[in-house]
Specification:
Layout lengths: L1 H4 L2 E2 L12 H7 L6 H7 L3 E6 L1 E6 L7 H8 L5 H9 L3 H12 L2 E2 L16 H13 L4 E4 L5 E4 L7 H4 L6 H16 L1 E2 L1 H7 L4 H13 L3 E4 L8 E4 L11 E3 L10 H8 L20 E6 L2 E11 L4 E9 L5 H18 L4 E7 L3 H10 L1
Parallel strand pairs: 13-14
Antiparallel strand pairs: 1-3, 2-3, 4-6, 5-6, 7-9, 8-9, 10-11, 11-12, 12-13
């Protein structure tokens, strides 16, 4: 699956499951939870900035080194420059602390008993850690509370990975764009650039190289007002039979404009929207049925009561409510079992709630 998606976005939201766990659920079903943590612990995956904070295959460490080198030049991060001006030695001192102490969370730099001087200020220490992480001088693994613990790469990764030659920037951009286009199948240049958060101006030549070599082909898509590109390995099945709940951080919907173009699905996550202004709910997942997104489902895993709560279920336009409720009930029951919850409780909000409750009672 990782060869297909290339990366998994990380986010601290844990209303249902961690952001990087859900795309696997959506594609594989009830896989064994914890396997991603094991892959990180065994240095098969590492965390770095790709599509935001992401898990990547360890073989991609050399691919990311041009980003690390650019970060050392401190391009585009004003807070880092300000930190260096306030205290030119803080980065060296924070690095030395991690080197001497081993895996260290940022919170350790705010413990009164561990301050060693006036520079021992949490905000600047945190910035120094982020700078060292961004430049590849430190790596990090997540603890149970999702806090990063920083460490030296040579204590975490195999030597053959660290000693592998860095991939030069032009080739690295080409590789990332080819992977992006392959993962998407079809997309605009914006979609392809966004997958690894590459800046369009700096990546245009690499995209043109893929065009010249026939890796991607310019096409027009009915209803799209922008040119698109088709990867040469993309396949169009005669029929798609699928049912899946998608995380807000899933590659299928994370570029919201693409989701709207593909599915006529206007999607905004409302976690940071004040409760009175929310339209659908706090943590709303799109429900994909066959080749359409047919519903939005507000979900919460109540681990204390062992209930999968469904405060709201909202159908999209022109759907068959009974058919959607039947498929959605199956997904919710399987999701509850995977999350080790005992039951599903459907709230009153949304036009699908009555049909869904009836279907779950029937089960």
């Amino acid at each position: 699956m990782l060869r297909s998606t290339q990366l998994l976005q990380i986010d601290s939201v844990n209303v249902l499951a961690r952001a990087h766990e859900m795309p696997l659920w959506s594609r594989l079903g009830a896989y064994r939870r914890g396997v991603l943590d094991e892959m990180v612990a065994e240095a098969e995956l590492f965390e770095y900035w790709a599509h935001e904070a992401s898990l990547l295959p360890i073989a991609d460490w050399p691919l990311m080194q041009f980003h690390m080198e650019a970060a050392k030049r401190r391009n585009g991060w004003k807070s880092i420059d300000a930190m260096h001006q306030r205290n030119p030695t803080i980065v060296d001192e924070v690095f030395a602390a991690v080197r001497d102490q081993g895996p260290t969370p940022a919170s350790a730099f705010n413990e009164p008993g561990r301050r060693t001087g006036p520079w021992w200020d949490w905000s600047d220490a945190k910035l120094a850690l982020e700078y060292l992480f961004w430049t590849g001088q430190l790596t990090a693994r997540r603890r149970a509370n999702f806090e990063r613990a920083y460490d030296l790469p040579e204590r975490v990764f195999p030597s053959h990975i660290l000693n592998a030659p860095a991939i030069e920037e032009p080739q690295a951009r080409r590789i990332m764009l080819e992977r992006s286009a392959r993962a998407l199948g079809v997309g605009t240049d914006r979609d392809i650039f966004d997958y690894y958060r590459l800046k369009p101006k700096a990546s245009r030549d690499a995209l043109n190289d893929l065009l010249d070599d026939g890796v991607i082909t310019p096409i027009s898509v009915e209803g799209w007002d922008k040119p698109a590109y088709l990867h040469r390995d993309a396949k169009l099945p005669r029929h798609i039979a699928a049912a899946s709940l998608l995380s807000p951080f899933d590659p299928v919907v994370w570029e919201r404009q693409r989701a709207e173009r593909l599915f006529d699905f206007h999607y905004r996550i409302e976690i940071y929207t004040p409760q009175p202004k929310r339209v659908y709910g706090y943590y709303v997942l799109p429900f994909l049925l066959d080749d359409r997104i047919v519903a939005r489902v507000d979900l919460k895993a109540n681990r204390k009561t062992r209930v999968l709560e469904v405060p709201g279920t909202f159908g999209e336009r022109h759907i068959a409510a009974g058919e959607v409720a039947t498929a959605l009930a199956t997904e919710l029951l399987e999701l509850a079992e995977w999350l080790q919850l005992d039951s599903v409780a459907v709230g009153p909000k949304g036009d699908l709630s009555r049909s869904l409750r009836s279907e779950l009672r029937r089960r």
